[in-house]
Design goal:
Distance between the termini of chain B: 41 Å
Largest interface: A-B, 19 and 16 residues
CATH class of the largest domain in chain B: Alpha Beta
Shape of chain B: globular
CATH topology of the largest domain in chain B: FAD/NAD(P)-binding domain
Strand content of chain B: 15-25%
Order of helices and strands of chain A: HEEHEEHEEEHEEHEEEHEHHEEEEEE
Number of helices of chain B: 17
CATH superfamily of the largest domain in chain B: FAD/NAD(P)-binding domain
CATH topology of the domain at 15-59 and 147-228 in chain A: Gyrase A, domain 2
Number of strands of chain B: 20
Helix content of chain A: 10-25%
Largest sheet of chain B: 8 strands, mixed
Radius of gyration of chain B: 22 Å
Strand order of the largest sheet of chain A: 10-11-12-9-3-13
Radius of gyration of chain A: 21 Å
Strand order of the largest sheet of chain B: 8-7-6-16-17-18-15-19
Shape of chain A: globular
Oligomer: heterodimer
Distance between the termini of chain A: 40 Å
CATH architecture of the largest domain in chain B: 3-Layer(bba) Sandwich
CATH superfamily of the domain at 15-59 and 147-228 in chain A: Probable tRNA modification gtpase trme, domain 1
Number of strands of chain A: 19
Chain lengths: 393, 529
């Protein structure tokens, strides 16, 4: 259960530590929790993840525990991928659709044991999960407030955990998970993240949260550890090419106007749809779309110049063909990256488009028609992200 | 006798109710090999005649015939297969405790000191309602239009309906728009003075539903019931079938067989077999499997999807709609074997064959409804009584009679359960009836009460709801049984939903069955053509 009514904003289990570290006092609302946008300086936080280790408090992520003999069948009906392929102690990136084949949310599913899964996602989806559970012997429990979570990301993250005494963590493969002893209890670590870098996510009981944070930062001090806020994370995920629910697509349940939701195909996530499994939500609509074609295409753009193309219109010649949903100047790739939704006829890799960017300097607005090139995929994907054993920087 | 089941059929129809049989016969006419699977030991579904006491038989579910579409009778030549009315255009007599009853004929009123003003108002009221029924009836004989993926036919149908409404003229059009959504109580107050008359008309709009006269859109309930006055066999008014309603089921079965349909009785469906989202056939409880490319379920939507298809095989949005269909019955059936001719206070013997109502005024009906909202049965219930043996001596031994009554309100989810509640309710009903019929208790040879739970178990209707789902504006036309399944086809390719749960709805109409067959035939044409 998520506590409520005690104060206007909820505190995560790491709040005391975040508050102490948040020097610029910039906070924001994340699904009812108050969380830091910036702790000190965005670029410093960004570079911590790319050069050493950054720590992000992701406790407000919505979490559901799914147990019972039919949990696999239930999840397979919920999501578009085939969960039957997911082994115990493995994690999968998933998304799910409504009956129209439009994406309701994306998230990660952790297979904790044979019939025990955890789903982490952006939206509050209990109603949809409970309805979907009809006809299955399965229990769905909200456990957002019962699990505290930190993302520990960056080249030195593995070394930090080794310093913390997590023996053998370097052998953990991407999308694998493992449990480690900590303070007479244990914490779960998965090799997952939202930065595209070598990194881990740690899942601990709320009662251990503060002592874990302290131990982690003690162990990480020689490895350049630093708390990061959502602004830095946003640059990191854009550089790595990850979509953000509510930004790059509106969860289908939250759209009000007809036609504003998007299908997996329209978000470049068609590879996550498996028709080779029993009935799942959106199946018929997605089959129809596959046969008849999509309305939109999702593309990564390499935009000329250094002005982030936030909210820009995208043109092909004189024709307006789409809009940009996320954009950032990304320091490591040294690229001005943007995500765009364009008319399905456009967006082939290598195609040239134009972004109409407006920016303001000292009350003067300037318009730039910036050339863009459609790139084949995300630009940032270092070897260390995949290497096992994880490199020891 | 078991039909030899052929290995392959073109169509398997689940349920030998009137809709299932009408659909099967229509499809067989086009040369398709059709089998009808029925769990009960006789055809007809809710059109049933049961011997409930030695040599006393009664129409044990539906008791009046007033909406059966002419074309069902003619297409199946039912008259040549034993279907016959023993009485038609039966007047309605509303009983008054004082004995000053009111008799309502299709075109006039008699008794209860009804004023000339009311008599004139009754004529103009029925005339106007009939006009409205005529407009709406056009929408009943075809599939409901789909508002999202409109086909040319659907657009034309909508335009046609709009034109018909426009053609009513300014006053009537305005009245239809105003009355369609409101409650019958207000409309009665606008039109009439006589309490018995207001009660009689408003009762028509709430029979079989979980509504009282003050519930919204009960005027639609009235129009719905009186659609039979436009196209019903034996119209106007209600009729009684010789041999009981079961005879209609029997004659439809005979007609269907004559057209080449196989009918297998005593065969319960275990599940509809599905390969991903395509129907493969039907698996029976005895383990036999019937393979067919098309399965038509005339069972109600909840039974079809929850039991036969399985919720796990439905996408969540469809499942949610299935679960949200409102179909909890609120009507019970009372059957009494009588040791002689009944004697109602102040009622002439010649009126004993009428449709007799216990509903002295609208407040009485509304107050009868109130407890059912909170899981309790009415302490002063309303009754719609038929003494069919007056018209049909075959139903009871000579000199003896059967009384059949629809009684409301008897909520499906009775607080404390029907096992405990059934006997007290039956006693209460007999006491209530005795107030109008003082000699009743001395004449009772046997009595039987069917609660909604009994109706559910005996006739396999989820919730024991005789319409397979409330008839109200949120569950009619393209919303019946729910959006996405309103044109008889379902999310499972090859599975069609027919029956009272689909457009145009419940009561003994047969149109859902005919419309389903039309849809199957036209889809096949579209595919091959």
């Amino acid at each position: 259960m998520i506590p409520h009514n005690e104060s206007m904003m909820l505190h995560t289990p790491f709040h005391s530590r975040c508050a102490a570290a948040c020097e610029v006092n910039l906070w924001e609302d994340w699904k009812g929790y108050t969380t830091p946008q910036v702790f000190t300086e965005v670029d410093m936080e960004y570079f911590a993840v790319r050069n050493s280790t950054g720590v992000f408090d992701l406790s407000p992520m919505t979490k559901y525990r799914i147990t019972g003999p039919d949990s696999e069948a239930f999840i397979n009906k919920l999501i578009t991928r085939d969960i039957r392929k997911l082994a115990v102690d493995r994690v999968s990136y998933v998304l799910w659709c409504d009956g129209e084949g439009k994406v309701m949310d994306d998230g990660t599913i952790f297979r904790l044991s044979e019939d025990d899964y955890r789903l982490c996602c952006y939206t509050r989806a209990l109603d949809w999960l409970m309805w979907t559970a009809e006809g299955f012997e399965v229990t769905v429990k909200e456990e957002t407030a019962d699990v505290a979570a930190l993302a520990v990301q960056g080249p030195t993250s593995c070394a930090v955990f080794k310093a913390l005494g997590f023996v053998g963590i370097e052998l953990l493969k991407p999308f694998g998970m493992s449990r480690f002893k900590f303070s007479g209890s244990q914490v779960m670590v998965s090799r997952t993240g939202f930065t595209g870098d070598l990194g881990y996510e740690v899942w601990v009981e709320p009662s251990l949260a503060e002592s874990f944070w302290d131990a982690l930062f003690d162990a990480g001090k020689p490895h350049g550890i630093r708390a990061i806020g959502s602004s830095a994370l946003d640059m990191l995920r854009i550089e790595a090419g990850f979509l953000q629910a509510g930004v790059d697509f509106i969860p289908a349940d939250e759209t009000i106007r007809a036609g504003r939701s998007r299908s997996p195909f329209e978000l470049g996530l068609g590879w996550m749809v498996s028709f080779d499994k029993p009935v799942f939500n959106g199946r018929r609509a997605l089959l129809r779309e596959r046969a008849q074609g999509s309305r939109y295409a999702f593309v990564y753009l390499d935009v000329e110049g250094n002005k982030p193309a936030e909210h820009a219109f995208v043109y092909h010649g004189d024709q307006e063909v789409g809009t940009i949903t996320s954009a950032a100047w990304c320091p490591t790739t040294k690229t001005n990256i943007a995500f765009a939704q364009v008319d399905a006829k456009f967006g082939r890799p290598g195609q040239s488009l134009v972004a109409e960017i407006y920016y303001e300097r000292e009350l003067k607005w300037t318009r730039v028609m910036a050339q863009c090139k459609v790139t084949k995929g995300a630009l940032f994907s270092p070897d260390r992200r995949r290497q096992t054993p994880a490199p020891n920087f | 006798m078991m039909t030899e089941i052929k290995s392959e059929y073109d169509v398997v129809v689940i349920g030998a109710g009137h809709n299932g049989l009408a659909c099967a016969a229509s499809l067989a006419k086009t040369g398709r090999k059709v089998i009808v699977i029925e769990a009960l030991d006789s055809p007809g579904g809710a059109c049933a005649t049961t011997e409930f006491y030695e040599k006393f038989s009664v129409s044990s579910c539906a008791q009046w015939l007033y909406q059966l579409n002419d074309s069902v009778v003619s297409q199946m030549s039912l008259e040549q297969h034993g279907f016959e009315l023993s009485a038609r255009n039966i007047p309605t007599t509303v009983l008054c405790e004082s004995g000053d009853h009111l008799t309502v004929f299709s075109d006039r009123l008699e008794g209860a000191g009804v004023s000339d003003k009311d008599k004139a108002a009754f004529k103009s009221f029925t005339k106007q309602m009939l006009k409205f029924c005529d407009v709406l009836s056009k929408a009943f004989k075809r599939r409901p239009p789909n508002l999202v993926d409109r086909s040319f036919g659907d657009v034309m149908a909508l335009l046609g309906l709009g034109m018909k409404i426009k053609m009513l003229g300014k006053t009537d059009m305005r009245d239809l728009m105003r009355l369609g959504l409101i409650n019958i109580y207000d409309v009665m107050e606008e039109n009439f003075d006589n309490d018995l008359l207001k009660a009689a008309i408003s009762l028509d709009s709430v029979m079989g539903s979980h509504m009282g006269p003050r519930s919204p859109n009960t005027v639609f309930g009235y129009l719905y019931r009186h659609m039979g006055d436009i196209y019903g066999y034996g119209r106007p008014g209600v009729s009684v079938v010789r041999g009981g309603m079961g005879q209609l089921g029997q004659s439809m079965a005979k007609a269907a067989k004559a057209m080449g349909v196989d009918i297998e009785l005593n065969a319960s469906v275990d599940r509809i077999s599905i390969d991903l989202d395509k129907v493969m056939g039907v698996v029976l409880k005895d383990g036999r499997e019937l393979r067919a490319g098309i399965v038509v379920s005339s069972a109600d939507p909840k039974t079809t999807f929850e039991k036969f298809v399985g919720l796990a095989n439905l996408e969540t949005d469809t499942l949610r709609r299935v679960k949200n269909v409102r179909m909890k019955g609120d009507a019970a059936k009372l059957h009494i074997a009588l040791d002689g001719l009944p004697n109602f206070m102040g009622l002439a013997e010649s009126r004993l064959g009428d449709r007799l109502l216990i509903a002295p005024n609208m407040e009485y009906i509304e107050k009868a409804f109130n407890p059912s909202k909170y899981g309790k049965f009415s302490t002063s219930p309303i009754m719609d009584i038929s003494i069919p043996s007056i018209h049909d001596s075959g139903l009871a031994p000579e000199g003896k009679h059967v009384l059949s009554a629809i009684v409301q309100y008897a909520p499906y989810d009775l607080e404390g359960g029907w096992e405990a509640g059934k006997q007290p309710f039956q006693n209460l009903l007999i006491d209530c009836l005795s107030q109008y019929y003082p000699g009743l208790k001395h004449q009772i040879l046997s009595a039987e009460l069917l609660t909604p739970v009994d109706i559910e178990e005996r006739y396999l209707i989820h919730g024991g709801h005789w319409h397979h789902g409330e008839i109200s504006l949120d569950q009619i036309l393209m919303m019946r049984p729910f959006p996405g399944v309103s044109q008889y086809s379902t999310p499972v390719d090859g599975l069609y939903l027919s029956g009272a749960g689909t457009h145009p709805g419940g009561g003994v109409l047969g149109l859902a069955g005919l419309n389903t067959a039309k849809e199957i035939i036209s889809q096949k044409k579209n595919r091959t053509g």
